[in-house]
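Before the break, one more example. Copy the sequence into your notebook; we will annotate it together after we see the structure.
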Amino acid sequence: MPAVDLKDSCAALMRLFRVPRDPDLLRAQFDAFSKQIPLLYFILISNTLAVAYTYVNVAPDWLTMIVPSVLTLLAALRTFWWLRQRGLVRSDADILRNLRATNWMTLPIGAGFTAWSFALYPYGDPFAKSQVAFYMAVTVIGCIFSLMHLRSAALIVTLVVDVPYVLFFWATGEPTLKAIAVNNLLVSGAMVTVLFIYYRDFADLVASRKSLLAQQAATQALSDENFRLANLDSLTELPNRRRFFAELSSAFNNAEIRRARVAVGIIDLDGFKPINDNYGHSVGDRVLIEAGRRIREVCEGFGPQRVEFARLGGDEFGLVVCGDPEDADLARLGERIGEQVKLPYQLDTAHTGLSCSIGFALYPHSATTAEALYECADYSLYHAKRHLRGRTVIFSSELEAEIRSRGVIETLLRTADFDTEMELVFQPIVDSMNEHTVGFEALARWQSPRLGWVSPADFIPAAERIGLIRPLTQALLVRALAAAKTWPDHTRLSFNLSAHDICSPDGILPLIAIIEKSGVTPRRLDFEITETAVTFDFARAQQSIAALKAMGCGISLDDFGTGYSSLSHVHRLPLDKLKIDRSFVADINENPVSHKIIKSLTGLCDDMEIACVVEGVETRAQLDTLRRLGCDFLQGYYFAKPMPGAAIADHLAKDRARLDAAQGAKVVA
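Here is what the structure looks like once it is written out:
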């Protein structure tokens, strides 16, 4: 046991003279120590020169001139070297190496100054000898203070100087010098005690600072992660709407300062909602992730412009194009994005296809604020979806004029008197075989006191945007039913409903009340809904359609073939008619594709046992072709233009007379 204790004690003693390996403590020691080293060497040089001056006339020149000069030069060189270290950035290994070198150099330097002092001592008188004792005592205390950040070096100096000092002056037998030696020993001991306490507190301070920095780093990391999550879309891991508008604001401000161009783009995936409805949200989410990945790759590889890309929400994405883009650059970017989005999406057993509409607006041509620039891009997207679906539209002066016109229409529509300003006209729907009128489609017209006649293509979307479509529908339905009540019982009324009418929670209830109050049997009514209205909220639309069907009303799917709903929707709805859009009829005799489309759709209607209604018939040749293809009912200027309600009685009378004449001719024949 004693041997073990002695071994442990020696090991503990050796640890006192080692330089610690903690990188943070090492660096803190080095920084503090390097600032005090010049003071240490100043004490040594000034005290040495003072003692040498005292002995210059009594001791040999090599002791008073040569040795002090060498010691002073060595101290000066070390001072200069340490002063140069302050501005350098050093590695942990380099710091450890320098501190260890300081430990090793402390031993010969301390021994050299001590030996020189003892060598001078015999040549002096009592006063000079006392100065040597004072010099050594004061110098060692100063060195301990200067070396307190490097405990091992301070202990080496204390042992190398104080032990010989006490023994030397105790051996002189002089009571005064013996008292000085003992006093110096006690003071040095007190200084070493202070040194240990200070070093411990210094090490604790470094450790606490390290802990504090670690906590701050953890807090900063948590803050950075929270910031990242707050600016990241959780599904696609793309920047989100918040980050997009922050990037837009920054890019816009930079463009203003540099007088450069910056563009905003908004992308909408065409046909995404049917994917969600048909295959489920899980497949829809995967399509969104894949579409986002493709668009991001295009943006990252698009030079020399820098493109910031984000998901704004739903199936809508945003772009901020920096780097002074031109219209041609935006068109090229939109084309590349469209090509990538159109590529097939193979997901398990589902094979889906998409396209995208893109709207761009360019500063400073389109707007002077970031918010206005975004609004212009949004209108460009709106225009693309209505007129150039699947294409890229860049905001222009024509669109700016449209916005002004739209604003005027919305303002006047809010104050319009529906009873006096809104009118209904009726377009006949005829049997394709005998051209007999079987019903009328009610069409709204608005004569504004300020604008004159306003197209339904302008005021119907405006009414939807500002939330007036439902009261407008209800007012027009009341008037349409009042007109239909005066018609023969076999003549049907066809009336258009918007997405807001059939997809709002209580949108269909006021319409049912109007029908019941009108006195017109529901079996004479056909409500026309568009593919867009169905896909807006299929579940809600399905409920509304079921309620109308339960009353006995007929349901027609309008503009079939121009939207993005799928055949599965057609099969899942209780439809009575499909209305084929006029765009397929215009070139039916010239374009084989149009001919095949209508042929396919009439075959679909036969399979589903529902009627087929074709719009836009304007020539006899078109009529003959549609008859051969098996279309049931037709509409178009070839038969009659839309007419006011007052002209219907005369039209029906002429139609009846023509039909009777045709039947009479058959009888005669």
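The radius of gyration is 48 Å. The first helix runs from residue 2 to 16. Try to locate both features in your own notes.
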